[in-house]
């Protein structure tokens, strides 16, 4: 029996940064994301005759670190199903891995969905969200399409994502600007831990998220793209400020990241609707609308001719 599932990445508009339980991937705060149509992971799983697992990514054997991460997830599912069977995992990834483009979100959401079918677990979307979270926290959100809220919860069974609007009708458009598709030097897990433990401003972070999330829900309800963009940009910079104030400080931003972000207020003064959000990596997602997208794309191309640009729209949940 072979099962195949596709999941899409998501971009956190209101971010989580910090885990109160690293093993269960329980965050300190809620978060709110938008699932995107352009970046996806398709995963096929099947049982093997023996007990040895095989993991392939884009047709090649997985790196030792990623192989172990996947096997740990397979062990979790096997334990639940009282199984010792080996599993072949074949993943086709349309996202640069570990570059701050949410490859783990789509990857573990797709893996959870495929294993759900392989083991005939018949999990509900909420249960699938909990399972995907055990592989990667942000994967809990990629079970659903459109705008999604991940509630931080108190344990393994109440920390899951819920859809806010799976089929948003507003003309929200993102332009992904990839400066560097290489794996980042500081992993998200390592960066979170360092910020939580050493930034003197971390105690204020949950309050910032709570306020921004309430305001973002209103902006989505009003379909106000400018307000959505402004809140997302502000929340993003507040998150990265935790890294700059960690001891020792670190940053995911490169010179190009800074240059683009500093150009945005200038472009907005000219009447261009454009805001930025950046996950744990150097690459930027610009928030705009369909009408303004050609202007934004032309501006970015003129300043960063080497950057890889991808247009993204609100995307679907697990398929």
Describe the protein's topology.
Blueprint: E1 2-14, E2 19-21, E3 26-27, E4 31-47, E5 54-57, E6 60-61, H1 64-80, E7 87-93, H2 103-118, H3 125-135, E8 147-150, E9 161-165, E10 172-178, H4 188-198, H5 205-222, H6 225-244, H7 255-269, E11 275-277, E12 284-289, H8 293-303, E13 308-312
Keywords: ATP-binding, Lipid biosynthesis, Lipid metabolism, Lyase, Nucleotide-binding
Pfam families: MDD_C, MVD-like_N
Domain Diphosphomevalonate decarboxylase-like N-terminal: 7-161
Q: How many structural domains does the protein architecture include?
A: 2
Topology as a string of helices (H) and strands (E): EEEEEEHEHHEEEHHHHEEHE
Oligomer: single chain
Tally the beta strands.
Answer: 13
Given as residue ranges, the uncertain stretches (5+ residues, pLDDT < 50) are none
Radius of gyration, whole Å? 19 Å
If you consult CATH, what is the topology of the largest domain? Ribosomal Protein S5, domain 2
The largest sheet is: 7 strands, mixed
Structural class: alpha+beta
Distance between the termini: 18 Å
Helix content: 25-40%
**Individual helix count:** 8
Under the CATH scheme, the architecture of the largest domain is 2-Layer Sandwich
Based on Cα principal axes, name the global outline.
globular
Name of the CATH first level of the largest domain: Alpha Beta
């Amino acid at each position: 029996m072979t099962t195949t599932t596709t999941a899409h990445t998501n971009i956190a508009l209101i971010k989580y940064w910090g885990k109160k339980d690293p093993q269960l991937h329980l965050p300190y705060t809620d978060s709110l994301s938008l699932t995107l149509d352009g970046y996806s992971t398709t995963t096929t799983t099947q049982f093997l005759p023996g007990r040895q697992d095989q993991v392939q990514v884009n047709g090649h054997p997985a790196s030792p670190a990623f192989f172990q991460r996947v096997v740990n997830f397979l062990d979790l599912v096997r334990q639940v199903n009282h199984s010792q069977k080996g599993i072949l995992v074949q993943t086709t990834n349309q996202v640069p891995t570990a570059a701050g483009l949410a490859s783990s979100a789509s990857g573990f959401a797709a893996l959870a969905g495929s294993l759900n079918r392989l083991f005939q677990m018949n999990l509900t979307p909420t249960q699938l969200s909990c399972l995907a979270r055990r592989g990667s926290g942000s994967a809990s959100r990629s079970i659903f399409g459109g705008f999604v809220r991940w509630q931080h919860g108190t344990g393994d069974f109440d920390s899951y994502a819920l859809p806010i609007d799976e089929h948003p009708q507003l003309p929200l458009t993102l332009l992904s600007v990839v400066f560097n598709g290489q794996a980042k030097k500081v992993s998200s897990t390592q960066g979170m831990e360092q910020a939580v433990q050493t930034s003197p401003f971390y105690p204020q972070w949950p309050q910032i998220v709570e306020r921004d999330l309430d305001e973002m829900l209103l902006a989505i309800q009003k379909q106000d793209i400018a307000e959505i963009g402004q809140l997302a940009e502000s929340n993003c910079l507040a998150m990265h400020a935790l890294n700059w104030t960690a001891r020792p400080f670190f940053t995911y931003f490169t010179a190009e990241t800074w240059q683009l972000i500093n150009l945005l207020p200038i472009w907005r003064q000219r009447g261009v609707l454009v805001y930025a959000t950046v996950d744990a990596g150097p690459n930027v997602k610009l928030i705009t609308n369909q009408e303004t997208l050609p202007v934004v794309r032309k501006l970015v191309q003129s300043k960063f001719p080497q950057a890889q640009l991808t247009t993204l729209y609100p995307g679907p949940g697990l398929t």
